């Protein structure tokens, strides 16, 4: 078996943390490893060399280490989107630095949610019992767009919630037609392709106009 020298093959990709984080651009999404897999050295370099970054989105499931990006002074640089809120970012979310919507009362749903894999996942709900549910899903079908949004119940006034109304408004704007060729709804008396006639089939004559 041929030996694979990964150090030689990827030596041109070896860099320092400071150089690596400078590749991050404003508006980028940054995923931080979960639990003890959080790269503390990289996180430190991220905030230390963040002078060129604005409105970057930090995404994590649950981080256990230091979270200097959650400091108030980095509010304009980093926005957080967290699956679980741990102690290291709890105060920041309480101050509105992170991105989440709190709905006091709602009907509980839980996975498995038997839908096609979303093209984009925007929201995941978490309930007090620990249940999670994909609650904001984007689908692309040809020139059409579909947005599934879970919140809503006949008992609770969720649709009056300011943030929920904003999500619905944004979804409508996102799904609206946005250029591209217009479909032709004209009348076509002749079929686009020949379809064989089978025994017993009823044929209907269509006018030319």
Q: Would you mind describing this structure in some detail?
A:
The protein is an alpha/beta fold and 209 residues long. The protein has two domains: 18-100, 3-Layer(aba) Sandwich (Glutaconate Coenzyme A-transferase), CATH 3.40.1080.10; 103-178, no CATH class. 19% of the residues lie in helices and 17% in strands. It contains five helices and six strands. The protein has helices at residues 6-9, 17-21, 40-48, 87-94, 162-175, and strands at 29-31, 56-60, 78-82, 120-126, 132-141, 144-149. The strands form two sheets. A three-stranded parallel β-sheet has the order 1-2-3, with no helix packed on it. Strands 4-5-6 form a three-stranded antiparallel β-sheet, with helices on one face. β5 and β6 (144-149) form a beta hairpin. The longest helix is centred in the last third of the chain and has 14 residues, at 162-175. The model has no long low-confidence stretch (mean pLDDT 78).
Key structural traits:
209 residues, alpha/beta, Glutaconate Coenzyme A-transferase
Helix content: 10-25%
The pLDDT mean sits at 78
Q: How much strand?
A: 15-25%
Q: Radius of gyration, Cα only, in angstroms?
A: 25 Å
